[in-house]
Design brief:
The structure holds 2 protein chains of 2 kinds.
Chain A lengths: L1 E10 L15 H21 L2 E6 L7 E2 L8 E2 L9 E10 L2 H12 L13 E5 L10
Chain B lengths: L2 H17 L4 H18 L8 H19 L4 H8 L9 H12 L6 H11 L5 H7 L4 H15 L10 H13 L2 E2 L2 E2 H15 L3 H15 L1 H4 L19 H15 L6 H14 L8 H15 L2 H15 L1 H9 L8 H11 L3 H14 L3 H19 L1
Antiparallel strand pairs in B: 1-2
Helix pairs in contact in B: 1-2, 1-3, 1-5, 2-3, 5-10, 6-8, 6-9, 7-8, 9-10, 9-11, 10-11, 11-13, 11-14, 13-14, 14-15, 15-16, 16-17, 17-18, 18-19, 19-20
Classes of the chains: A alpha+beta, B mainly alpha.
Amino acid sequence: MAKYLLLKHYRGAPAAVNDVCMDQWTPEEISAHMKYMHDFAARLEGTGEFVDGQALAPEGTFVRYDGEGRPPITDGPFAETKDLIAGWMVIDVDSYERAVELAGELSAAPGAGGNPIHEWLELRPFLTEPPTITE
Amino acid sequence: MDDVMLRSLTPGVLGILVRRGADFAAAEDAVQDALAEAVRVWPADRPRDPKGWLVTVAWRRFLDATRADAARRRREDLVEEQPAPGPATAVDDTLQLYFLCAHPSLTPSSAVALTLRAVGGLTTRQIAQAYLVPEATMAQRISRAKRTVSGARFDRPGDVATVLRVLYLVFNEGYSGDVDLAAEAIRLTRQLAAGIDHPEVAGLLALMLLHHARRAARTASDGSLVPLAEQDRGLWDTASIAEGVGILQTALARDRLGEFQAQAAVAALHADAPTAEETDWVQIVEWYDELARLTDSPVVRLNRAVAVGQADGPRAGLAALAKLDESLPRYTAAAAYLHERDGDLARAARLYAEAALKAPDLAERDHLTRQAARLNSRRSG
């Protein structure tokens, strides 16, 4: 089993095919989308492939050490250039192929008009501890 | 073995040990040992006085541990002078724990964790689950908190207001895992109210009961938020409302108004209205005026502006809102709501979408996004 991180971006990812801002959907479309995401996570819990997932607020800050005795510095009003993560899900699957398959499924969540969003999700494998025994 | 019964006895036993002079952390270890012993022995040989039994065993464990520790010999001399173990009244000892756990030197999250552990008798695992952090993280938080209050002596009550703030924090966490923190906070506040004569304790208990009574109506089956005006009032727990209103009235009659009583009064006015339209908004505005006087909190002024919008029309609400700082939490959501009622749907939709980006939790964000979507689809459709 290998763990993968699925990242959903507020921005920074290429535009989705069905790229309509959520407040332009109908309330029913929003409900359908939420249900899809929820059912997806529930199904992976059932197959034992779900690890964890959380949504993140859009406001993020870059922070950097600024030298001895000085407070850390945070970035200024340049937020528009940043890649922002909207949420993440960690899955634990048998193969890279399975991870891609699930990410594709998540990307097909319904959006405006009830059609799939086709949004870009970022898939990142977790680095693992080196094995105790190496041949 | 009855877990709930053991949990309800734990704070009293811990309180007795602390009152007799045991250090908090050492007392807690001793009580845990006694509980483990109880789980082992009781099924075969259940004592007639479970609490007395626990006190005796815990006290013996504490003395053993203290004796074994040469550096603590001086304290041992001190505690040996104390009376022998035996039945004692639960409330006074538990009260000391409330004040110890809400010690001013603790951070709010540490005070909350320690209160749930020591007064509530929850396991570290249960608290960790409720706050969605790993058990090891919560164990560290609790042991740091114990170290912080270690050595603190409690011969007189501390600050009631701090205890109430901690309990309200617990209440507002909602619940997850196998512990309902709102119900737990009500249980602990009830216990506090039984042991301390203070109108604000009653005010907080009333406030919690009134909020809690509406919980079943507050979310739809899919987890989405249902605003007060749209809630199915048939789902409200009338017994809990009646109890809250009764407690509040007794507290108000004492004429020592505080923040929690005033908040409970607002909640009671909402709970009293048979329909949203029949809500007594004029009186609610008056209570917000009292609250603003008591707390001078900008958040209260924001709520007041929304209430003014209901009592005197959206224009009046927007005028009250205009005097406040736009960076306040939920300012944008309040403005969106008032503009919608004023008929400016385009502006309202834009503000709802903006408010959704600033929402502090998922349910609220989804609710605000749906509000924007509702107005946008109505305008285009």
